[in-house]
Design goal:
- This protein is mainly α and about 120 residues long.
- It has one domain (about 20-110).
- It has helices at about 1-15, 30-45, 50-70, 75-85, 85-110.
- The longest helix has 23 residues, at about 85-110.
- It starts with a helix and ends in a 10-residue tail after the last helix.
Length: about 120
C-alpha cells in the first residue's frame, strides 16, 4: 500500500509543470483606460435589446476603443491572456480599473444619488 502511494506521488509530481507567467505587451497604464472604456461600452450594450444591433454596436465600440487608445486587438488579447495566467496581477489591475471608474463616476455625477430608471 505504501509503495502504491509513493508511485502516485512520483507520477503526479513528475507530470507537474508550473504555468509560465507571460509578460503582457501592454502596461497597466495602457490597459487601465482601455478596460475602463470597455466596461462603459458593455454597460451601454446592456441597454440594447436587439441582439443584432447589440453585436454590431459591440464591434463598433470595441473598434473605436482600440483606435482611440492606438492599440491593436492582438496586443490587447495577448496582454489579457498574460493577466489571466497571473490571478494576483489581474486582481490588482481590475482594482485599479474599478477605482478609475469610481473616479470618473464622481466627476460626472458628483455627490448626487443616481436612481435607475424604471423599465
Amino acid at each position: 500500500m505504501g509503495s502504491m502511494a509513493a508511485l502516485v506521488v512520483i507520477l503526479f509530481t513528475g507530470c507537474f509543470k508550473p504555468i509560465p507567467i507571460e509578460k503582457p505587451l501592454l502596461s497597466d497604464e495602457e490597459l487601465i483606460p482601455i478596460l475602463k472604456d470597455i466596461h462603459i461600452a458593455e454597460a451601454l450594450l446592456t441597454e440594447t435589446v436587439d441582439r443584432r444591433k447589440k453585436d454590431s454596436l459591440a464591434r463598433l465600440y470595441y473598434g473605436q476603443i482600440f483606435e482611440l487608445h492606438q492599440v491593436d486587438t492582438a496586443a490587447f488579447n495577448q496582454s489579457m491572456h498574460a493577466y489571466f495566467s497571473n490571478p494576483a496581477a489581474l486582481d490588482s489591475l481590475y482594482q485599479e480599473v474599478m477605482d478609475a471608474l469610481g473616479e470618473e463616476k464622481k466627476a460626472v455625477v458628483g455627490d448626487k444619488k443616481v436612481e435607475k430608471p424604471e423599465k
